[in-house]
Design goal:
Number of helices: 8
Strand order of the largest sheet: 2-1-3-6-7
Shape: elongated
Number of domains: 2
Distance between the termini: 41 Å
CATH architecture of the largest domain: 3-Layer(aba) Sandwich
Radius of gyration: 18 Å
Number of strands: 13
Structural class: alpha/beta
CATH superfamily of the largest domain: Response regulator
Order of helices and strands: EHEHEEEHEHEHEEEHEHHEE
């Protein structure tokens, strides 16, 4: 039974989510503020985290977890739908960003989808299963789930790694946003196209900071994105994103 920590101060929302998650087989622990949540984070498999809490922002807890190297999946709940807020949440280490209002059934589906993505695979792949050859500037290792650009280890979230994995599976091929969503989250997962756009923006920034060309991930307007052949795209001297 997976353990879910629900950090939410609104009683009605907390009760409905706790009921839906428990009914679906999850063990739910509820915390109404940051102080109550902090000591519980190490004993759960996933955190559902509201951003607006009585004693501070959920971003503070998310930042503390990631700074400490804790990779427990986090689904952020927020009433703010601006692109800037979504990007900040995803770049800050959230595995998903859900905007209020939402249905309890949607949250249960997202919890299951995030756990599917983040749980270790039952069998280890051989190291030769790296997705791009080590001799190329961009190297992804499917076994360790680490990505390098040249000699720089990219600090990617799980979703960013999976996005890069899908794009790198066929360099120069244009993937539609829906194909990317299906490749990352699985078919039928309820997210919007803007979720992909936010992740691409974050991924581009990290690649460029590592010395890659801003054109390494190219936008095909009205369609989606492609990964240019890393050996054919020159890097950049700029370190800003």
């Amino acid at each position: 039974m997976h353990r879910v920590l629900l950090v939410e101060d609104e009683t009605a929302i907390a009760e409905s989510l706790a009921f839906a998650l428990s009914r679906d087989g999850f063990a739910v622990t509820h915390a109404a503020n940051l102080a109550a949540a902090r000591p519980l984070c190490e004993t759960c498999d996933l955190i559902v985290l509201d951003l607006m809490l009585p004693d501070g922002s959920g971003f503070a807890l998310l930042h503390a977890l990631r700074s400490a190297g804790q990779r427990t999946p986090v689904i952020v709940l927020s009433s703010r739908d601006d692109e800037t807020d979504r990007v900040a949440g995803l770049e800050g280490g959230a595995d998903d960003y859900v905007v209020k209002p939402f249905s309890p059934r949607e949250i249960v589906a997202r919890v299951r989808a995030v756990l599917r993505r983040t749980q270790p695979e039952p069998t280890r792949r051989p190291s030769s299963d790296a997705l791009l050859r080590p001799s190329l500037p961009l190297h992804l290792d499917a076994e360790t789930r680490r990505a390098h650009y040249q000699d720089t280890l990219l600090d990617l979230t799980r979703t960013e790694f999976d996005l890069l994995r899908v794009l790198s599976s066929a360099p120069e091929r244009v993937f539609t946003r829906q194909q990317l969503l299906d490749g990352i989250f699985g078919a039928g997962y309820a997210v919007t196209d803007r979720t992909i756009d936010a992740h691409v923006k974050a991924l581009r920034r990290k690649l460029t900071a590592a010395g890659a060309s801003p054109d390494l991930i190219e936008t095909e307007r009205g369609v989606g994105y492609r990964l240019r052949d890393p050996s054919a795209v020159a890097g950049t001297d700029s370190s800003d994103g």
